[in-house]
Amino acid sequence: xxxxxxxxxxxxxxxxxxxxxxxxxxxxxxxxxxxxxxxxxxxxxxxxxxxxxxxxxxxxxxxxxxxxxxxxxxxxxxxxxxxxxxxxxxxxxxxxxxxxxxxxxxxxxxxxxxxxxxxxxxxxxxxxxxxxxxxxxxxxxxxxxxxxxxxxxxxxxxxxxx
Length: 162
Description:
By secondary structure, this protein is mainly beta. The protein has helices spanning 75-81, 87-96, and strands spanning 6-15, 25-28, 34-40, 48-57, 65-74, 110-117, 131-141, 150-161. The protein contains 2 helices and 8 strands, in the order βββββααβββ. The strands form 2 sheets. It has a 5-stranded antiparallel sheet with strand order 1-8-7-4-5.
């Protein structure tokens, strides 16, 4: 199959005031690349978890999405294990190239940024049908299904594969 191309169509960043300053934000460049400024004001330690979900709109107008897959994982452990082979490694290496994001815990309070981020051609699974997708990334403390989750940050990326 031919490699898919991609274009981001929207980005949003929400970070809890407990962990980030209000200047934290995400925006698209004129070339549909992603920029982010993250002002982390508390250390993120072991125990941090991430849920990454890939969604597809059910019908354009309804705003309803269907979940294609969702992974929940221990963020710090996964970052440590990252240098093993696999799609996640390709994706995350791809991200680290575009900024100064930390890739080991504890994540120290600092200004982190991402500039002109785009997906590399080889990081998109060729079997995905073309169209619009949403990537939802939530970072939190607590148990995956637990009630007492403390939200840290949520990133939502809308992306068109064509």
